[in-house]
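Agenda item 2: tryptophan complex prediction
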Amino acid sequence: MIMKRVFSGIQPTSDSFHLGNYLGALKQWVELQDGHDGFYCIVDLHALSGEIEPTLLRKRTLSSAAQLIALGISPETSTLFVQSQVPHHNQLGWLMECLAGFGEASRMTQFKDKSAKGGAESARVGLFTYPMLQAADILLYQANLVPVGEDQRQHIELTRDLAGRFNTRFGQTFTIPENFILKSAAKIQDLQDPFSKMSKSSGSSAGVLEIMDTPESNMKKIKSAATDAGREVKFDEKEKPGISNLLAIHSALSGQTITALESEFEGKGYGDFKIAVADVVVEYLRPIRAKALELLEDENHLVDLLHVGAAKARTVATETLEKAYKNLGTVA
Ligand code: TRP
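Presented output:
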């Protein structure tokens, strides 16, 4: 049986992934390795569409790789690599730019939101062409599944449209990826502002549980998480957003159901419950952080692992790119 291919990418834009990244997407990347051919890419070229800080980019790319391995992405079973080490992404990206309409690219909500923040005039062209590079990432590997969160739906739709358009005009070249928006994933909210998604861009880090943070710091963040009126530990996203979020976190990491947790904490207060959540989070993350730190200590070894991944990726990417060029009529 031929295994379906999975492709996904994450930007190396922070020193640490947070629990929302993990439970929202990365945990599914790890699970999908079973029975699928996984291609997982640290998309450093996409990160260049934001602020560029050379020392940080390097540090964060390596840290992202270490964390992905520590979280369970196997560099042997899967292909784990850094986007800029496979120049085919830029090459196919250009072909996608020549296929996409200015109008359809202008309708991408991520571009509209991000460019609106700093003013359209100063928005960079890379932010505009970002989705065409993303389409190239996916299509180069003939991916069947692209596990991403809801916020990436429009980019995946564009990828499907571009692949279909290319195939129709120039002959069968690309696999059209299935829609695969992660729904089963736990939705993790900010600890201080439980009506917003846990995210680094929210400004304050007090509500964000980071994988590379010390156990003490994460313990403290959970203990000072916003709670709600009342004193019952009950799942109710509208009336008790803070407690519901903590229940979701506990459940996702401990594997206990929300109902089981509600009965376990019946008659106990928020204080006891928070301590239990903090223990679960801290103990879950402790070995992951330790493993990531260990990998970061031997940078040469980590870079070697990434080179092996990039070599595997280039083999597949070369085949697809050659086919695309040939079908377009370029002279080889
Ligand atoms: N745009 C994605 C994000 O911000 C990252 C990404 C880049 C990606 N290329 C990809 C995700 C290809 C999936 C597939 O999350």
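Discussion summary: The first strand starts at residue 4 and ends at 10.
Owner for follow-up: CH.
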